[in-house]
Amino acid sequence: MADPMRIRIVRKGDVADIKMLIFHPMETGYRTNSVTGEIVPKHFIKTLQALHNGEKVLEVEWSRSVSRNPFLHFRVRGASAGDDIEIAWEDNFGETGGTEAKIK
What are the domain boundaries of the chain? Predict the structure, then answer.
């Protein structure tokens, strides 16, 4: 994946508004290949964590019901300029991804 994730952080006062787009196929295991007729195997993000200055602020568990290229939006209180945000995910194939960003 060339660009696995995009993240945008807007801070107002001490609240950081975090929006991210994760590029991932998120296959359900129900779709069939139109050429071969074979079922496309399940391939989805299982877990995602967000850290603010090393402290966990968000942990999610997803299943195959989440759409392709999921969008996630959440807020973090107690944010200051220069704080670190780290995002990490793992899918059901054991592949991982993530990103780091600084709050401005």
Answer: 5-102
Q: What is the mean pLDDT of residues 84-90?
A: 97
Q: What pLDDT is attached to residue 4?
A: 85
Cα 18 to Cα 78: distance, rounded to the nearest angstrom: 13
**C-alpha pair distances (Å), 95 with each of 18, 74, 89, 92, 101:** 23, 24, 8, 7, 21
Q: Which residues contact 96 (CB under 8 A, 6 or more apart)?
A: 88, 89, 90
Q: What number of residues does the chain have? A: 104
Q: Which fold has domain 5-102?
A: Immunoglobulin-like (2.60.40)
